[in-house]
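Lecture notes, continued. The same structure-token format from the folding unit now serves as the input rather than the output. Read the line below as a description of shape only.
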């Protein structure tokens, strides 16, 4: 095992016991995974969900950790979100009085948000969602050919 590949250096930041449902936070985290830090910040700035503010704080913390690390001389704009995930935290249980002496349980869910940053290996490629027109690929006119064949 002397010839093992060197591990990729990463910097991480965590926010624990965040009062956001993990299911809702995962929807936001999916948008920034694999993106560069400036691009991820822009995405989070224009995301209308409440979890985006909390995730943006964790991203800022991870960038600060990378820039202040004594062994690394990383610039925040050169970093990529290598991993971003949300784990479930403890659930706070509360009760709400209901009619006829009954109660309804309220579950106030919490989550733990983790973001890992690494240096970008190569220049960023177009995102998966870009259209074929932007990539310079022509689409075949399949619909027109099908219509001509049926006529």
């Amino acid at each position: 095992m002397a010839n093992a590949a060197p591990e990729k250096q990463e910097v991480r930041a965590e926010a624990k016991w965040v009062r956001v449902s993990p299911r809702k936070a995962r929807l936001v985290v999916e948008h920034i995974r694999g993106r560069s830090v400036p691009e991820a910040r822009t995405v989070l700035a224009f995301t209308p969900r409440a979890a985006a503010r909390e995730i943006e704080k964790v991203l800022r913390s991870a960038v600060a950790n990378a820039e202040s690390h004594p062994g690394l001389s990383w610039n925040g704009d050169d970093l990529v979100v290598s991993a971003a995930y949300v784990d479930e935290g403890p659930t706070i249980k509360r009760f709400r009085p209901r009619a006829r002496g009954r109660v309804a349980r309220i579950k106030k869910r919490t989550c733990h948000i983790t973001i890992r940053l690494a240096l970008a290996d190569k220049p960023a490629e177009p995102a998966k969602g870009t259209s074929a027109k932007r990539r310079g690929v022509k689409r075949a006119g399949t619909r027109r050919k099908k219509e001509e064949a049926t006529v």
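Point for the exam: The helical segments are 22-32, 37-45, 51-68, 132-135, 142-150.
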